[in-house]
Amino acid sequence: MNDTFLKACRGEEVPYTPIWIMRQAGRYLPEYRAVRGKSDFLTMCKTPELAAEVTLQPIDILNVDAAIMFSDILIPCEAMGQGLEFHEGKGPLLSPAIRDEETVNKLFVPDPEDTMKFVMDTIRLLRKELADKVPVIGFAGAPLTTATYMIEGGTSKNFLNTKRMIFENPSLYKTLMDKITATITEYLRAQISAGAQAVQIFDTWGGIFSPTDFREHVLPYVKRIIDELKRWMSTEMSEPVPIIYFVGETAGLLEEIKTSGADAFGVDWRINLDDAITRLGSDVIVQGNLDPLSMFLPQDKIEERVKDVLSRASSARGHIFNLGHGVVPQTPPENVVALVEMVHRLSRKTG
Ligand code: CP3
After folding, report:
1. pLDDT digits (tens, 9 = 90+) for 188-215
2. C or N terminus of the chain, fewer CB within 10 Å?
3. Mutation pick for ligand 1 pocket among 29, 73, 82, 322 (CB with most ligand atoms within 8 Å)
4. Rounded to whole angstroms, how far apart are CA atoms 161 and 30?
């Protein structure tokens, strides 16, 4: 089995730097668009055969070192009782927006094997089909990032309703976050039980806060998930699965992020990786951090940037190569294929 990714997550010696790419299964691949042309996005998420098929596409096409299961961070919102739709070009729509006591009280903490069984079935199918070729990464949104979609009813520019709830009605926010946190803890536990070999917690919108607000309103819930999963894994399994915490707009928050208890930290491209490592501490495992839009450069320029990221990462205990955020739909796939080859070749230890 190619366990380079898992070894890097654990800080063990690796023959080369492993790479996977956020949103590696997606619209930039013609093979994905062919499957997507025949069914809508949520149907794909809810049909394990289709979800597994598109999860596996980048493994063969790109030669990446891990498979991230195809799903979406908003799936648990529907399981909690909120309506979820995706409309072409408009992004996700969640209804009703959760902004008052009545809507918060109607949400429940679902049993993931009842309400999101298709996700666990996708993982079980992937483990079977991959037969240990590469590990399977499960994931969930962090409580705050999930809450922004639930409160705003979709994507947002300035997160007005989220911040208003936090500042005007902190106890309502806490009740909502307690429910989301319990849901995500059980959801990740179910994914690990189904066979996920690592999990990533996506906090795409964590960076909308000052460090003080992040510490008070974002981090405690993430810590609760990680603490609970680690306590459970220590009693259930001989080798716990690594937990990766990715925060968008990482740079202002590194000192806070490092206290989360995660095994590895996703870093976006707005900071040099060596600076991030200095602030996180050199005993950390980092993941990142090429600007996703550098995929539009000529390949010789991409190669220069790959070398730069690899050399800046050398002071960390471990490094998993990734983009600093998801690959965008317009990206030329051949450049992503070239990226994976470059990372493997340039990081390979000789002699
Ligand atoms: O990384 C992977 O390949 C696994 C699949 C995955 C998707 N979404 C598939 C998807 C993962 C890990 C996600 C995470 C996700 N979803 C995040 C966190 C990471 C990030 O990108 O910041 C967020 C914020 C979402 C919410 C979401 N899903 C939005 C805002 C949208 C619409 C915008 C867009 O990119 O279209 C989605 C839809 C979505 N999720 C698509 C895919 C492949 C596109 C759907 C389509 O085919 O039309």
Report:
1. 999 999 999 999 999 999 999 999 999 9
2. C
3. 73
4. 37
